[in-house]
Design a protein that fits this description.
heterodimer, A: 227 residues, mainly alpha, 3 helical TM bundles of succinate and fumarate reductases, 8 helices, 0% strand, B: 251 residues, alpha+beta, Ubiquitin-like (UB roll), Fumarate Reductase Iron-sulfur Protein, Chain B, domain 2, 2 domains, five-stranded mixed beta sheet
Chain lengths: 227, 251
């Protein structure tokens, strides 16, 4: 047998690995993001939260990782777009009747739609916080002399339609993760009867708990539980 | 054979690969619940021939669920509503009197329609030709104990080897991906000592041919595993991924 294979990253399995690895990387970001933002639940007028936010803004390793994060995110999106176009080309004539719900979950079939919704959410989210924190500047300092990102949060999360957008984003994230988390491990080849249950349970818990914590932030500020 | 079921069939009729097809409605009045789905088509074709019309072309061979020739996308599912059966093993008692049944061919760019419900599945043959075999000089039969194989490995290999290459996995996959088929064919050899010599080239070449045939990309929806008449597991796709990664690291 001679070797006739092409470039690894152009192969179907290579592209799948890119989706899985960038996905896992974005999952690791979610963990850090969720942990640091939970500092608002100290309910100390944002002092703890602003310490965390200032550390993230000043630390050069974090600054460098921010660039890696954007690369990972864009790679995940571009690869998904390429795969979606290829997959649609692989079935030029569609079925008149397709009982897809008999063998798949709706969110497994809708990763592209859920991902697009997440992208729309990200545009709003980045405009709300990231652009202000990096470029247009924050409104003053808190009692500790840290930049007051918390004040921006309080202001943003008192606007009704923004709460709706964030809740929508959290729901899209939950379903995107529900498929994406275990799927990444399958792609890596980590499918073994001994560990499949562990991956599925961990994935399900992650997909429910992380979006719930995120959703609790705008909601608790809107209702004044955190102020 | 006669019976008491009335069935309305909507069948995809397409003259050849180049023309467009459409669903055509047929009424059947004398269907026995004990007929297989293919025998019901035999009845339809006899009626069509008697009327001087063109019979519906469909693939079939052994009619006992082992050859992989029969296909048919029935009411939105490959091989119909039952799990782990082929279309020839599907019986009309799985439907109700008066039902309307929609029958379409496998739909994938890599499986062009030849006529009506028959599709060209030689893409699978070309993938097999790229490495779904072992090169061996056959002499006299060896002593059976020359090659000790652990029972769990032998079982897993045989489970993968149960794949009959019908293409239901491709037909049901929202991406028309052939990964369940290819992974079964890679796995059955990767698990046995006889498959080790060509293991690296096999993984690379069969995956390359799969991609070249225009099958879609796997997104792990798991539809293939559920629709496979032989119960081929997604575990095989994970194994193929591992085989492919290792193969690419080695060269």
């Amino acid at each position: 047998m001679s070797n006739t294979s092409k470039n690894f990253l152009q192969s179907s399995i290579g592209k799948k690995l890119v989706m899985g690895l960038t996905g896992l990387f974005l999952i690791s970001f979610l963990l850090v993001h969720c942990f640091l933002n939970s500092f608002i639940f100290f309910n100390d007028g944002g002092l703890m939260f602003n310490i965390g936010a200032t550390f993230m803004a000043k630390n050069w390793i974090i600054r460098a990782m921010e660039i890696v994060l954007f690369i990972g995110l864009i790679w995940h999106m571009v690869q998904a777009l390429i795969l979606t176009m290829e997959n649609s080309k692989a079935r030029p004539v569609k079925y008149a009747v397709n009982n897809a719900s008999a063998n798949t979950k709706w969110y497994s079939r809708s990763m592209g739609v859920l991902g697009s919704l997440l992208l729309l959410f990200l545009v709003v989210h980045l405009a709300n916080f990231w652009v202000k924190s990096r470029f247009t500047g924050l409104p003053g300092e808190d009692a500790n002399g840290n930049e007051n990102l918390y004040a921006v949060m309080q202001e943003t999360f008192h606007i009704g339609w923004i709460i709706a957008v964030y809740l929508g984003g959290c729901i899209a994230l939950a379903y995107h993760l529900l498929h994406g988390f275990p799927s990444a491990f399958q792609t890596l080849g980590w499918n073994h009867p001994k560990y499949n249950r562990l991956i599925l349970i961990t994935g399900t818990l992650f997909s429910v708990i992380i979006p719930l914590i995120f959703a609790a932030m705008p909601v608790s500020m809107y209702f004044g539980w955190v102020n | 054979m006669s019976g008491n079921m009335k069935i309305t069939l909507k069948v995809w009729r397409q003259r050849n690969t180049k023309t467009n097809g459409q669903l055509v409605t047929y009424q059947l009045n004398d269907i026995s619940p004990d007929m297989s789905f293919l025998e019901m088509f035999d009845v339809l074709n006899e009626q069509l021939i008697t009327k001087g019309e063109d019979p519906v072309a469909f693939d079939h061979d052994c009619r006992e669920g082992i050859c992989g020739m029969c296909s048919m996308f029935i009411n939105g599912r490959p091989h119909g509503p039952k799990s782990k059966v082929t279309t020839c093993q599907l019986h009309m008692r799985s439907f109700k009197d008066g039902d309307t049944i929609v029958v379409e061919p496998w739909r994938a760019a890599a499986f062009p329609v030849i006529k009506d419900l028959t599709v060209d599945r030689t893409a699978f043959d070309r993938i097999i030709a790229k490495g779904g075999y072992i090169s061996v000089n056959t002499g006299n039969a060896q002593d059976a104990n020359n090659l000790p194989i652990p029972k769990p490995d032998a079982d897993k290999s045989f489970e993968a080897a149960a794949c009959i290459g019908c293409g239901a996995c491709v037909a049901t996959c929202k991406n028309s991906s052939a990964m369940l088929f290819v992974s079964a064919k890679i796995s059955q050899l990767a698990l046995l000592p006889q498959g080790q010599v060509e293991r690296v080239a096999r993984a690379k070449n069969m995956v390359a041919q799969m991609d070249a045939e225009g099958f879609g990309n796997c997104t792990n929806t798991g539809a293939c595993e559920i629709e496979c008449p032989k119960g081929i597991s997604l575990e095989n796709i994970a194994r193929m991924n591992r085989e492919f990664y290792v193969a690419n690291l080695k060269e």
